[in-house]
């Protein structure tokens, strides 16, 4: 399926260009042409030509003298001097005095350049502009200016269409949508009993979780046409154009019914109406039109609207009320099983070695979306090609997860010996603190090869399975582990470095969330101090408490982090010999696996016991 999305520049951009060209023309080109014939000379040449009787016309102004040669083919200019006898000498030379020497090139050229050229440029630009306008407003083959054509693309079902099988995981979403497919197959079953299907289904979830894919799969499974348009495409320069597009889209859809209309990023038009003066009129009109259209068609006419958004909380309540988008299908980030399934779906397309274990890869890629997993598989295939191998190996996949997490290996970076040592201790600090505590995820890999993201090394911890609940103790342990890197630097070298900035950020965030959102402090009990803004996009929070409370929160955050930091330092001091051994080993190897790490940890424990 081909989707052509041309990036659109705002119209104002083209007006700007026209304006600029005109200004430039006037400022630079015109004066250039006007003076193009005049040649500047020195006063000596002028006197010489006077004496040689070579001057045709002459014009003496206050501070300059313009003159021509005898046949008037050339115009010269020179500065005026205090020269009392000049007039007499000029007269003697036979020059003709005049007041307006023609300084310009031939009248025809002047006319062409100063009148015709700008007009031609203007017309050409105008043509270009109107074409762009037409493109913005509608399909390429629409009438002049194509007002109000929707550029929804129709997909006629084909055997290559996406099916539910191509969408891995997301079983709940598929189950939910299967009903719609069933309805499209056999509407009679539903109408007989008097049931109406929802007109609109809202697919809600973080980016890259397969919402578009699911919508296509519904159309693919039901074998009906698929119209797709992005919410942002409705929002146009002119008030009313978006609404006209909505009308057109629904007209087309009704003709092709039964069919699926998919509106991506519906929050672009369906955001809450502000109700303030000077709000976005165009967007509101578009939304109103959409609401009217949805009310207008009866439930069972076979047009089903699927819409996707990752900001459900910002949608206008009118849009989500029963009778419009009344069904909401969550499309969440895949869990461990889902990740494994998605990896397998995408791995169908690549050649892979026998050693590939998707379970491990899925575990390592905790938190990755479907799109990211697809990307991981592709990165691995690219890496195999780069290394001139014919199949993708486990190592390729692991490396590509690291690329997605931390960026590419930075081959050129050379750390000084001391720096490398500090980084080794830092990473082992994290890993050892994690290993010495119960309730921490096992260490999978430790490396001190610098990455393009700026990380000088990192410790990868991987949970055994999915974790849905975290206890206070586990969160505290996480913070301790995060402070472990810095703690090791302090314990061993007695210095602090910038290497811990990311750890600090994460530890602070966790500690803050414990207090403000998870109700894990005695002082504030179960009171929310922060609200999550958009759950699916980074999860920004806003404070919801008085400034005094904020101060208290800040103090609490510092207390928590400090306490865990001290705990980490103590742990490392008590295990100093083990810390040294591990850091030495990592320093030498640069990358070690979790098993190697645990072997050394356990050896030591065995020896001391
Ligand atoms: P969204 O619309 O939720 O942002 P898309 O449906 O556009 O995400 O997904 C982007 C890409 O990610 C898809 O083309 C597909 O390759 C991959 N992908 C996402 N989710 C899945 C999934 N559940 N199964 C298989 N591939 C997926
Ligand atoms: Zn660190």
Task: For the structure shown, list the relevant keywords.
single chain, 609 residues, alpha/beta, six-stranded mixed beta sheet, five-stranded mixed beta sheet, 22 helices, 16 strands, 51% helix, extended, disordered N terminus, binds adenosine-5'-diphosphate, binds zinc ion
Oligomer: single chain
Number of strands: 16
Count, helices: 22
Unreliable sequence segments? 1-8, 138-148, 155-160
Overall geometry: extended
Q: What Rg, in angstroms, do the CA atoms define? A: 37 Å
Question: In this structure, how is the largest beta sheet organized?
Answer: 6 strands, mixed
- Alpha-beta content class: alpha/beta
Gap from first CA to last CA: 65 Å
Order of strands across the main sheet: 6-8-9-10-7-11
Assess the beta-strand content as a share of residues: 5-15%
Bound molecules: adenosine-5'-diphosphate, zinc ion
Mean pLDDT: 81
The portion of residues assigned to helices is 40-55%
Q: Can you describe this structure in just a few lines?
A:
This protein has 609 residues and is an alpha/beta fold.
What does this structure look like?
The protein has 609 residues and is of the alpha/beta class. The protein has 22 helices and 16 strands. A hairpin with a 3-residue loop joins strand 2 and strand 3 (64-69). 34% of the residues are buried. Residues 1-8, 138-148 and 155-160 have low confidence and may be disordered. The site of zinc ion has 5 residues, from helix 17.
């Amino acid at each position: 399926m081909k989707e052509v999305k041309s990036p659109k520049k705002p119209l104002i951009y083209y007006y700007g260009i026209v304006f600029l060209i005109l200004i430039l023309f006037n400022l630079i080109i015109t004066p250039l042409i006007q003076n193009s014939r005049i040649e500047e000379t020195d006063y000596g040449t002028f006197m010489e030509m006077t004496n040689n009787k070579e001057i045709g016309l002459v014009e003496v102004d206050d501070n300059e003298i313009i003159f021509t040669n005898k046949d008037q083919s050339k115009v010269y200019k020179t500065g005026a001097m205090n020269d009392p006898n000049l007039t007499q000498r000029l007269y003697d030379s036979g020059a003709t005095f005049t007041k307006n020497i023609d300084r310009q090139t031939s009248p025809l050229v002047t006319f062409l350049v100063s009148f015709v050229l700008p007009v031609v440029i203007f017309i050409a630009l105008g043509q270009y502009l109107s074409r762009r306008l037409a493109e913005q407003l509608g399909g390429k083959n629409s009438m002049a200016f194509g007002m109000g054509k929707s550029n929804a693309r129709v997909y006629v079902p084909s055997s290559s269409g996406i099916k539910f099988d191509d969408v891995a995981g997301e079983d709940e979403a598929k189950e939910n949508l299967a009903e719609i497919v069933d309805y499209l197959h056999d509407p009679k079953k539903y109408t007989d009993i008097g049931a109406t299907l929802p007109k609109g289904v809202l697919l809600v979830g973080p980016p890259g979780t397969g919402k578009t894919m699911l919508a296509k799969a519904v159309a693919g499974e039901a074998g009906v046409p698929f119209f797709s348009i992005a919410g942002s495409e409705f929002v146009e320069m002119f008030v009313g154009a978006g609404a006209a597009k909505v009308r057109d889209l629904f007209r087309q859809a009704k003709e092709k019914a039964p069919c699926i209309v998919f509106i991506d990023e519906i929050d672009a038009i369906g955001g809450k109406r502000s109700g303030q003066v000077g709000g976005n009129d165009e967007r509101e009109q578009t939304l109103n039109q959409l609401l009217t259209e949805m009310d207008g068609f009866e439930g069972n006419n076979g047009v089903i609207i699927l819409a996707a958004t990752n900001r459900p909380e910002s949608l206008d309540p009118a849009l989500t009320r029963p009778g419009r988008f009344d069904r909401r299908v969550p499309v969440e980030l895949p869990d461990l099983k889902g990740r494994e399934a998605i990896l397998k779906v995408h791995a169908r397309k690549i050649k892979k070695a026998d050693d590939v274990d998707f379970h491990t890869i899925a575990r390592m890629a905790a938190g990755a979306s479907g799109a990211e997993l697809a990307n991981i598989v592709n990165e691995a295939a690219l890496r195999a090609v780069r290394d001139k191998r014919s199949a993708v190996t486990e190592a390729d996949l692991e490396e590509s997860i690291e690329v997605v997490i931390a960026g590419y290996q930075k081959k050129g970076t050379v750390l000084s010996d001391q720096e490398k040592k500090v980084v080794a201790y830092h990473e082992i600090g994290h890993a050892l603190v994690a290993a010495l505590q119960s309730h921490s995820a096992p260490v999978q890999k430790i490396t001190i090869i610098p990455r393009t993201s700026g990380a000088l090394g990192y410790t990868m911890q991987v949970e055994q399975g999915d974790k849905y609940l975290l206890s206070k103790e586990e969160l505290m342990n996480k913070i301790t582990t995060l402070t472990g890197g810095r703690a090791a630097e302090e314990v061993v070298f007695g210095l602090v470095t910038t290497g811990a900035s990311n750890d600090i950020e994460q530890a602070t965030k966790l500690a803050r969330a414990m207090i403000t959102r998870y109700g894990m402090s005695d002082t504030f009990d179960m009171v929310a101090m922060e609200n999550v803004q958009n759950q699916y996009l980074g999860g920004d929070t806003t404070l919801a408490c008085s400034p005094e409370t904020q101060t208290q929160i800040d103090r609490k955050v510092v207390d928590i982090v400090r306490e865990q930091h001290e705990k980490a330092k103590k742990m490392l001091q008590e295990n100093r010999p083990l810390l040294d051994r591990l850091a030495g080993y990592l320093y030498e190897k640069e990358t070690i696996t979790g098993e190697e790490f645990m072997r050394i940890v356990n050896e030591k424990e065995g020896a001391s016991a």
